[in-house]
Design a protein that fits this description.
- With 594 residues, the chain is of the alpha+beta class.
- The chain is 54% helix and 11% strand.
- It contains 27 helices and 16 strands.
- Strands 1-2-3-4-5 form a 5-stranded antiparallel β-sheet.
- Strand 12, helix 11 and strand 13 form a beta-alpha-beta unit.
- Helix 1 crosses helix 4, helix 3 crosses helix 4 and helix 23 crosses helix 25.
- It is globular.
- The protein binds zinc ion.
- Zinc ion binds next to loops.
């Protein structure tokens, strides 16, 4: 394994600023000495994600994840540990030594190669569209001009044209020293059937480069100029670099506006995205293809939780939009829906009715719940008892999709009121669909409050640990009275064990040493949670120490008494008088000292 030396890792973490790094993904607001934000890893309406600049860690009190800058990047960018360290090192200007075992993996090497040829190919297609003289290129330019796509937009999206030749791109890339093998791996050429050699995948088409969020071209889509040219759109196949359903077309250009307006309009195709964008609708992105995937939704959620789905009403679109809506709701997004009329898409709508009418339609977006209600009404005849029952079950299943309890309760209420279903009926049916029966029955009893059972150890243990992490000097003091075995079993005890090990080696251990000591995310998250415990609770450390150690000792004695009592009962049952006397003496001794 290509291990990066520890001192290099420490240097990288020292020179990185977690506030700056996380600030690239979610809006941080100062809160005392810390920063707060909406968690990028789960959906929430009030911020429970805390970034601590002093300790250089983050922790989410909502979903429980936590760690340092490396851990954040691993989670957010789906990187392996060495990749995340290198990413940070690059930013911080720290040299990470390349060792023979640490060379880029073959797959990383291939991905980087495809990125490079994609950039070359995009530039080649773009140049052709701008300067080509052939009749086909002129048709493409006229097509774009006719739709109002100006030069600025062509440049911004690096739109291009693939010449009407079998090997224009292939020849060009080879002239730039790229191997056929790599071009083929990138999906830009296709092997000839029954013969040797390759030909260009994209020919006589307008090319739309598909970028990742960092504006690097990962794939291409291409539109035919005439109906006779086969499929209207063809796309890059999946490659080592490109997986379908992981990108949103245009989001690399609109992400800032999406974040600022806290809303994204999701459309289907390239032109559906480009046309409104040209007319000043800046918070828009295209899903490219059928239903939205979880990966795409996670990408969107980095910038907003509010989605307006804009779709046309053709039959193929209907099932895709319903699948997209289900996934969006399951992922806890807030969704509104705009349906355009038959044979209309955003592109044609804006050309025929103008952008003001388009914006008006966006404002008239219906809530997800109403959309579903209307949709199922068209699917089932609610005047028959059978249809009504099917309709009801579908609606309840829809309500059960959302992970947000408050939203769920609100929808349940709407269903009950709008369709005059009884409380009991809605409740019983919903409970079949949801695991959190307590929550729902609480709602129907009218309390509306949700109770969460804490899986963590007693507050005293956690507070004491937080103290250890704030100032390791308290560890020494505690070691005179208690040991790891006195803490509740589980992750908290594991953390204490880790601290005891570190404290043995040196009294000068840091939070990062402790995080590095554990290689499981669950224990790391306990550490970051404890570090993130509000300063307010630790203003009087000596008091916290005495109270918590006292509480743990009491707990320890209680357990000891319990064990003795059990032994006494056993001795009684066995009529073992000698043992019984000994145990009773021990018990009295214990009572005196406690
Ligand atoms: Zn979270």
């Amino acid at each position: 394994m290509g291990l990066i030396p520890n001192d290099v890792i420490n240097k990288v973490i020292e020179r990185s600023d977690i506030v700056e790094i996380i600030g690239n993904y979610t809006a941080l607001k100062k809160a005392g000495r810390n920063f707060k934000a909406l968690c990028p890893f789960h959906n929430e309406k009030t911020p429970s994600f805390v970034v601590n600049p002093d300790k250089q860690i983050f922790h989410c009190f909502g979903c429980g994840v936590g760690g340092n800058a490396v851990g954040f990047l691993m989670r957010q960018e789906h990187l392996e540990f060495p990749e995340a360290v290198r990413f940070l090192a690059n930013k911080a200007g720290v040299q990470v030594p390349e060792t023979s075992s640490d060379e880029p993996s073959p797959s990383r090497h291939l991905r980087e190669g495809i990125l490079k040829i994609n950039a070359l190919a995009a530039a080649f297609f773009h140049e052709k569209l701008l300067t080509g003289h052939e009749a086909d290129v002129k048709t493409a330019r006229d097509y774009l001009k006719g739709r109002g796509v100006n030069l600025e937009t062509v440049k911004k999206f690096q739109l291009g044209f693939a010449p009407n030749e079998w090997d224009a791109l292939l020849k060009y890339l080879k002239s730039r020293g790229v191997s056929e093998e790599l071009i083929h791996s990138g999906g830009l050429i296709i092997a000839r059937e029954g013969k040797s050699g390759f030909y260009d995948r994209f020919r006589n088409r307008i090319v739309f480069p598909i970028a990742d969020i960092q504006n690097r071209f990962v794939a291409f889509g291409a539109r035919a100029m005439a109906d006779s040219d086969g499929a209207k759109y063809i796309n890059s196949p999946e490659t080592a670099l490109y997986t379908k359903g992981q990108h949103m077309f245009g989001l690399q250009l609109t992400k800032a506006a999406v974040g600022k307006l806290d809303r994204v309009i999701v459309v289907e195709g390239y032109m559906d995205m480009i046309m409104p964008y040209i007319h000043g609708v800046e918070n828009i992105a295209a899903s490219l293809g059928t239903a939205l995937t979880v990966d795409q939704i996670r990408l969107i959620r980095r910038y907003t939780s509010n989605v307006v789905m804009l779709f046309d009403t053709d039959a193929a679109g209907q099932s895709a939009i319903n699948r997209s809506l289900d996934t969006l709701i399951e992922q806890g997004m807030n969704v509104r829906v705009v349906m355009l009329d038959k044979d209309e898409d955003p592109d044609s709508f804006i050309r025929s009715s103008g952008v003001d009418a388009f914006r008006k339609r966006l404002e008239q977006a219906v809530s997800f719940f109403d959309f579903r209600l209307n949709w199922f009404k068209t699917q089932y005849d609610i005047n028959t008892s059978e249809g009504k029952s099917q309709f009801f079950n579908k609606m309840v299943a829809t309500i059960a999709l959302t992970p947000d309890e408050i939203v769920q309760a609100d929808w349940a209420k709407q269903l009950k009121e709008k369709l005059k279903f009884s409380d009991t009926l809605v409740r019983e049916q919903l409970n079949k669909f949801t695991k959190e029966k307590l929550t729902l029955s609480d709602y129907f009893r009218g309390s509306g409050e949700t109770k969460k059972v804490s899986a963590c150890a007693s507050a005293g243990e956690e507070l004491l640990l937080a103290l250890f992490l704030k100032d390791p000097a308290w560890v020494k003091a505690a070691q005179e009275h208690i040991g790891p075995e006195d803490f509740s079993e589980g992750q908290v005890r594991r953390v204490v064990e880790g601290i005891w090990v570190l404290a043995q080696g040196s009294s000068d251990w840091s939070t990062h040493d402790l995080l590095a000591h554990f290689n499981d995310e669950a224990t790391q998250s306990v550490v970051t949670k404890l570090i993130s415990i509000e300063e307010g609770k630790l203003t009087d450390p000596a008091r916290v120490f005495l109270d918590c150690v006292g509480q743990i000792q009491k707990e320890k004695q209680k357990k000891a008494r319990g064990r003795l009592m059990e032994a006494i009962h056993q001795a009684e049952a066995l009529q073992d008088i000698e043992k019984l006397n000994k145990l009773r003496e021990q018990f009295n001794q214990l009572l005196k000292t406690s």
